[in-house]
Design a protein that fits this description.
alpha/beta, 4-stranded mixed β-sheet, 7 helices, globular, binds guanosine-5'-monophosphate
Length: about 190
């Protein structure tokens, strides 16, 4: 189907995953980013078609009906999914990074056993809570929901190929770049 490798990156909301991923993408212009579809509302600064495809619940359900997703999951009150067509298109050009949570990661691994699963962990759950609070765009209920979810994600991380702790963005990005370079060399 394609020549590229798939890198699945997961990490709890607030772990700093987007910042780390921006560093990684800036360092490797050959990598493509898989843009997911979601029913959640855009956060300030998020652009449709760049961060996510922002769709309605009805549109998302129609995509499910048309078998348009590689994987999808409902979590934190919203749907998130990886559109099949754009992923296949991007894989023709090279390797692709997916920013998805563990259920999606394991679903991808089933269809693409060669996918490399990387989990970005916070230094601790206390530190994660501090980061979520400082973000200021999330309500108390949402913070608790995200912390509960983070605990579950940390459990799932045991099944990943790599766990990288994000205590410093540059160091974390360098470690991920090293994993990507090594995995591409293995081909
Ligand atoms: P956020 O709402 O903070 O952008 O993302 C919440 C969670 O949804 C994150 O863990 C993110 O990795 C995950 N996510 C984003 N896109 C997808 C997707 O297409 N599929 C799945 N399974 N999870 C996704």
């Amino acid at each position: 189907m394609s020549k590229g490798r798939l890198f699945v990156i997961s990490g709890a909301s607030g772990v700093g995953k987007s910042t780390v991923l921006n560093e990684v993408m800036a360092a490797r212009s050959d990598l493509r980013f898989s843009v997911s579809a979601t029913t959640r509302a855009p956060r300030p600064g998020e652009q449709d078609g760049v961060s996510y495809y922002f769709v309605t619940k009805a549109q998302f359900q129609e995509m499910i009906r048309q078998d348009a997703f590689v994987e999808y999951d409902a979590h934190m009150d919203n749907y998130y999914g990886t559109p099949k067509a754009q992923l296949e298109e991007k894989l023709k050009d090279g390797s692709v990074i997916l920013d998805i949570e563990p259920n999606g990661a394991f679903a991808v691994r089933k269809t693409r056993p060669d996918a490399v699963l990387i989990f970005i962990a916070p230094p601790s759950l206390e530190e994660l809570e501090k980061r979520l609070r400082s973000r200021g765009d999330t309500s108390q209920d949402q913070i608790q929901l995200r912390l509960d979810r983070a605990g579950w994600e940390m459990e799932q991380s045991k099944q990943y190929d790599y766990i990288v702790v994000n205590d410093q963005v540059q160091t974390c990005a360098q470690k991920i770049l090293h994993i990507i370079a090594k995995s591409c060399d293995e081909e």
